Structures are given as C-alpha cells and as structure tokens.
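Peptidoglycan recognition protein 2
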Amino acid sequence: MTAQGVLWILLAFLVWSKPGTASLPLVMDSVIQVLAELEQKAPVTEVSLTASARLLSAQDSGTSNPLHHFLLETPSHKTADLDAHPLSPELQGLMKMVAQHEIRGGQEHGVVLAPDGSTVAVKPLLAGLEAGLQGHRVVNLPLDSPATPWDAEATPPGRRDASPEGTSSSDTEATLPNDKAKSPTAVDRLLAVTLAADLGLTFLQPPQTQSHPGLGTEGCWDQLSDPQIFTLLDPKASMLTVAFLNGALDGALLGDYLSRIPEPRPPLSHLLSQYYGAGVAGNPGFRSNFRRQNGAALTSASTLAQQVWGTLVLLQRLKPAHTQLRNVSQEQLAQVATYAAKEFTEAFLGCPAIHPRCRWGAAPYRGRPKPLQLPLGFLYVHHTYVPALPCTTFTGCSANMLSMQRFHQDTRGWDDIGYSFVVGSDGYVYEGRGWHWVGAHTLGHNSRGFGVAFVGNYTATLPTEAALRMVREVLPSCASRAGLLRPDYKLLGHRQLVATDCPGDALFGLLRTWPHFTETEN
Ligand SMILES: *[C@@H]1O[C@H](CO)[C@@H](O)[C@H](O)[C@H]1NC(C)=O
Ligand SMILES: *[C@@H]1O[C@H](CO)[C@@H](O)[C@H](O)[C@H]1NC(C)=O
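Tokens:
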C-alpha cells in the first residue's frame, strides 16, 4: 500500500481508536513495528491524501489545528473503513499513547525512546513525514481582507502550490523579517507543520500561561528496558521540550528527504529504521545521532525566522480569534519570529545533545555535591584511557559511563564519576557531574574548570572529527552563551596541571593548535 495510506491509517487511530493502554515499550522500534505491519498487511486501499490532513487536524485539538488543515491536503470525502486495518490491539494502544504530544502533571506524553538514547515526540515526526510525502512544499498564504493588495495570480482561499513540484523552498526568502522586509506571502509547509508554528507560538507569550517561554527541558524514563513514563526534569517546562524539538527536527529532515527523492519512495518503516539505526541509504551522517548538525544545514536562523513569521501570519489569517494572535501586529510577529528562530538555532542546533544522567542509568551522587561558582574560566581536556576504545553507540557509551562511575565511586572512593562531561563518538555528550557541581577530574583545579573527557585512548590516534568539534566549538560556545563558561575561557590538557600522560600524546598535540589553548593556567 502507499506510504501515504499507511500514514493515514496510523493517524486514524488518533481519532477513532478506543482508549487503550500500551503494554508495548514506548520505543521507536514499536512505532516502526506499527508502520511495518501496516505496510505489509494493510489492504491496498487507495486512500485519499486529504484524509491524512483531516486526521492530523482532528488530532490537533490545540492551537495549530487550522494549520494542518490548510497546509496538508484538506479532506474531500468520507474516510475509508477503518475496521479493515490489521493492527493488533496492542499496536493500536501504542499509537493511541504516542500520537498526541502533551505535557500533563510534569510528564510528557506522546514521546518514545529512540535507539540512540534520544527521546522523540511522534506527532511532529508524523507531520513532517506527511508533508514530505506530499512533495511540493511552498504554499501561498491566503489573503486576509480585500484591503490587502491582491496580486494578479491571486490564490483563492485554500491552498495552492506556488512552485513547481520538487522545487526546494527552504532557502528562498531568506530576508530577516525585522529588516523592513515585506510581509511573507508563502510558507514552506514542511517547516510550518513540524517546527515553525510551535516555535512561534511558544515565544509569543500569551496573556495567561504558567509555562516558561523558550526552549524546554530533558526528562527521565521510568525504566530504560521497558519505558512507559517520561517525567520532565523541569516540571514547568515549555512545550518546546527536547523531545518535541527532536521529533520536529527529525520530521523536517525526513520530510525534506522524502520531498526530494524520486518515486517510488521507500516504505516509511525502512526509512525510520535506517534513520534511527545506521543511517539513511547507507549514509552514517544522516541519522538521528546527528540531527542537530543536519538541522543546521537544513535551515538557517534567517530562513527559519521568515518561516516562523509566515506561519504566524497564516495562522492569524486562518483563525483571527486565536487567543495568542488576536490584535498582534505584523511587526510584533516578525520580532517574535526573529527571536524564536535565533533561540532555536543557537540554543538547540548550536548546543551539544547531552544525555542526562538518568539516561545512562547513573547511580546517585554519594554525599553532598559542592556547587560551582559560575561562570568558570577553564576547560580541562581528558581522555578516559580505559575504556580504550571509542564508544559509538548509546548502549556502548552508557555501559562505559556506568563502569567509570563504579570505578570512581567504589575503587577510587569518590562521590561520583569524576568528569563534568564525557564525549562519545556516537554524536552525544554524556552528563557526568554536569554544569553545576564540582567534579573530580583535575586535582587541585576542580572548582576552577569543567573536566571534559573523550571516551578512548588517544595516545596514538584521534577522536572522530564530530567528537573533536564538540569540545573545540559546540560545547564551549553553548556554555558561554548560557553564562556557564567565560567567553575568554582557557583550554588546557590534564597533563599541564597533574603528572599524567592524559589526554594522550596525539590528542594533546592537536589541542595545542586550538583557539583557546593556553600553555599555563595563569
Ligand atoms: C482589537 O483591536 C480592536 C481595534 O483596535 C479593538 O476594538 C478590540 O477591542 C481589540 N480586541 C482585543 C481582544 O484586544
Ligand atoms: C593506549 O594506546 C597506546 C598506543 O597505541 C598503547 O601503547 C597502550 O597500551 C594503550 N593503552 C590501553 C589501556 O589500551
């Protein structure tokens, strides 16, 4: 059956299935299993594309409801018989659990654990896949009132594609909205339905909301072997949680891929297994581990600002009574869009993806942690030496973290794993003591700097370029922006302060060429 048809059936559960309890673990593999079953067994029904838009919009009781309806195809006829679908009750229950994204009582719903250790919201992922399957992406905005100049090729209310099929739109209209740019006339529906609407609305502070504006938080699964409940680390987090942003970015990246490749397109179950596995079409760079880097290549802050602005304008026209958009001027929308796009680009895309302690199963800190006086002025670089091999998977890196923590706590008698952060070769940074607590990494200097270790033995070889870039650029620039590290921080190797070979001859040789490297601490 067609990929669209499969997605359509999936989305149908949001509306028609009876409430169920998922007994399947809330992991990406369960979602892939649902897709695979539908792709294998579903009767080949020619389901209308428009149905998926209807389902998406029916699923959206909240604020972005009219957008999906307008941007993804609108329904034109009664939907097909849903009783014919072949999913088992447990798979139906799973889809029911994960298809709505919500934050209730400090828990985030509609998210699953992916094989790379990241948590991903399913709804924006599905919306991105759907937008990508529909191909052409530029959609003209409807005109709000007769007073607005109506250009010669005026689009009637309702969607119409503004560009030939297959034309990429992500880099058109890259003007900054606050730079007296003219009002947006079109949006990229892929960015609009995945990211732009939620980004814009979150930063557009509504009159009465108790959640924080801005980017949200990570969370912890009740158990990693059979995840069911995801509790946020900051209970007052905004809707733009890390899991939401992950799902939105994955939806945008995969939708972009689907909109560009020629038909026949791969089954969605294959595409997702590759993306959350070894890489799409054999490309190890195109997988969930590197979503932030790929996201930075997909869209710039200025392009995204234009898209957020266009999406907010669209939403205002579609739903003039929208509580957050009523009487908000074009200039205000443009300002919010610029700010939101900048925050997302710098504080999410430009920051390392850090797995919190609970994700690798850290044992509790022993005793009472000592707070750091932030911002710190130093970054001390280590290699772990043991384990000697770089870790390249979430499972491998997590096991390394646990064994180092056990060694530091039980054999060395320390309170916790010594390092502030540990850098894997899987695209992730693992939280050790983190930004706020004094570590045990560089004797005599632990309260002056963060200790960051690469997993591996770098006496004769070097970490991957992605891992190196994390410590050379991404982590320090993100920490400086957040006020955790001084912008003029100094970078040193462990051996410069303590009698040790750490961080290895090869790595230390390279560190000496890095911008913030200093020969002596003072
Ligand atoms: C919006 O603006 C109009 C005209 O300025 C005003 O009459 C109306 O009360 C405003 N509505 C709200 C909800 O602020
Ligand atoms: C680290 O690498 C060096 C150079 O290859 C090697 O001599 C040493 O035995 C390695 N140490 C460990 C613990 O693997």
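The two ends are 67 Å apart (CA to CA).
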